[in-house]
Specification:
By secondary structure, the chain is α/β, with parallel strands linked by helices. Helix content is about 50%, strand content about 15%. The protein contains 8 helices and 7 strands; from the N terminus they run αααβαβαβαβαβαββ. Strands 1-5-4-2-3 form a 5-stranded parallel sheet. It has a two-stranded antiparallel ribbon with strand order 6-7. β6 and β7 (about 160) form a beta hairpin. It is elongated and about 85 Å long. The termini are far apart. Keywords: Membrane, Transmembrane, Transmembrane helix. This is Rhodanese domain protein.
Length: about 160
């Protein structure tokens, strides 16, 4: 009879509370497992929460505009828009968005970038635009405030600054 390369244990040994059960009953090990799970979740949280919003930094928004001809929609009132807006932005007030959403872009597969003052209204508007059938909707994270803090140009009454 040839010997097997591994030991054969009776089934009762496997379920009799071997070393694996002792590992999980030790409170120190349970605390370490909990810490590992919590820290892993906290590390993943920024990417999970950002995935739903689709927020872009000023640099990423610039690349989207330049490389893919994204349509920029400024959701602020006309007075704020005139005080300074992204180059090539179209102004549609947030309150009018529901009525005008079908007229934003001719091709609904083109990327749309929504902009407001601080990014809060844009996140709400993104839902409306997606529901209207636009395939790719992005939000400028931090809005025009973040755009200006990044040193990006704004247009004031036809003059870039």
């Amino acid at each position: 009879m040839v010997g097997l390369p591994f030991p054969i244990y009776p089934v009762s040994f496997l379920f009799s509370g071997g070393s694996s059960v002792k590992f999980f009953t030790d409170y120190t090990n349970l605390v370490l497992i909990a810490i590992a799970l919590i820290s892993g979740a906290l590390l993943l949280w920024p990417s999970i929460s950002r995935r739903g919003r689709g927020g872009l930094s000023a640099a990423a928004a610039t690349q989207l505009i330049n490389r893919r001809n994204a349509v920029v929609i400024d959701l602020r009132p006309a007075a704020e828009y005139a005080a300074g807006h992204l180059p090539s932005a179209r102004q549609v007030e947030f309150g009018e968005l529901q009525a005008k959403v079908g007229q934003l872009v001719k091709n609904k597969s083109n990327p749309v970038l929504l902009v407001c003052q601080n990014g809060q209204q844009s996140n709400k508007a993104a839902r409306i635009v997606r529901d209207a059938g636009y395939a790719e909707v992005h939000v400028l994270e931090g809005g025009v405030n973040a755009w200006q803090q990044a040193g990006m140009p704004v247009v004031k009454q036809g003059v870039a600054k």
